[in-house]
């Protein structure tokens, strides 16, 4: 099965961050963001712009992946809150943001795209677990599911 890719689309042409997991339908990456180190994206591989461009079964499949990433972040990091967003205004390629937020982060309690409320140095060092361990937990959660199928 070939998927539709659009020349010039950032998420069609590159992974979009540090690739952790890829299936035929979606991939999970960690975005590199100094202010919000536990920032993950679940990206639909085929170029579609809107949620309703997907068949209902694909919507469910994608949301199960989003839920899996959120669950791992909550279990491993115990953040103050997890933000979920699917905006796609700048990059109109369907993807979900899954971001562990903390009351100490640079923009808390505002959204991550708001102006900074404070300067936070070495945000990744403030996490209770190193990012490589969080990444490994995300991968393990998907591996567990793929072995069960």
Describe what you observe in this structure.
The protein has 149 residues and is an alpha+beta fold. The protein has a single domain (10-148), classed as 2-Layer Sandwich (HIT family, subunit A). It contains 4 helices and 5 strands. The protein has helices spanning 10-13, 56-77, 123-126, 131-148, and strands spanning 18-22, 26-30, 39-44, 81-85, 95-101. Strands 1-2-3-5-4 form a 5-stranded antiparallel β-sheet, covered by helices on one side. The chain is globular, with a radius of gyration of 15 Å. The two termini are 20 Å apart.
> What sequence of helices (H) and strands (E) makes up the elements?
HEEEHEEHH
Low-confidence stretches: none
| CATH topology value | HIT family, subunit A
Q: Specify the structural class.
A: alpha+beta
SSE diagram, text form:
Blueprint: H1 10-13, E1 18-22, E2 26-30, E3 39-44, H2 56-77, E4 81-85, E5 95-101, H3 123-126, H4 131-148
Antiparallel strand pairs: 1-2, 2-3, 3-5, 4-5
Helix pairs in contact: 2-4
TL;DR of this structure?
With 149 residues, this protein is an alpha+beta fold. It has helices spanning 10-13, 56-77, 123-126, 131-148; strands spanning 18-22, 26-30, 39-44, 81-85, 95-101.
Q: Could you name the key traits of this structure?
A:
HIT family, subunit A, 19% strand, 32% helix, 149 residues, five-stranded antiparallel β-sheet, alpha+beta
């Amino acid at each position: 099965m070939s998927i539709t890719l659009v020349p010039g689309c950032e998420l069609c042409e590159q992974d979009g961050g540090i690739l952790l997991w890829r299936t035929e339908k979606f991939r999970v990456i960690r975005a590199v963001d100094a202010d919000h180190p536990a920032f993950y994206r679940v990206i639909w591989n085929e170029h579609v712009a809107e949620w309703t461009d997907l068949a209902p079964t694909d919507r469910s499949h994608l949301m199960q992946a989003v839920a899996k990433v959120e669950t791992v972040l909550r279990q491993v990091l115990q953040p103050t809150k997890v933000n979920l967003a699917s905006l796609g205004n700048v990059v109109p390629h369907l993807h979900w943001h899954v971001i562990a937020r903390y009351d100490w982060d640079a923009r808390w309690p505002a959204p991550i795209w708001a102006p900074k409320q404070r300067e936070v140095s070495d945000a990744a060092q403030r996490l209770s677990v190193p990012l490589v361990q969080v990444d490994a937990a995300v991968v393990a959660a998907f591996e567990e599911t793929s072995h069960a199928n």
